[in-house]
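Fig. S4 source data, part A: sequence.
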Amino acid sequence: MNQIIEDIRDYSQRSGIVEKIEKWRTRTDVRENVAISSGVIAGLFNGLLEFLKFLLQHFKEQDPESRHYRPLEKSSTALLFWGSDLGVSHGDLDVALQHSSGLRGTVLTVLISIAEFMSKGMRSFFDI
């Protein structure tokens, strides 16, 4: 397991994924009068939360008894509480991990993995 984490961390550093995400965020942030003050972890976390809110609303409107709704709600709540405890949405975790590239890379790897999993799952679920 440790080797897998090390391999992912090495890949993240070699590929420059963090820098690419930061550049993407600055290019695609279309909100007016909003400074990008939070870091890449906060941006990715907030994007995941928005996507999860969209999915939960979709399932609630379409079929609240769907077998997907409860597990998604439970996982979303766990992610929300984790982020709230660490101040992730406001950039507190970015600040706390700014001098720990290993931990920062691990957190980013987990969040990116969640985003990729959700993206792939949604494509197949909605037949996109």
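Fig. S4 source data, part B ends here. The chain has one domain: 2-125.
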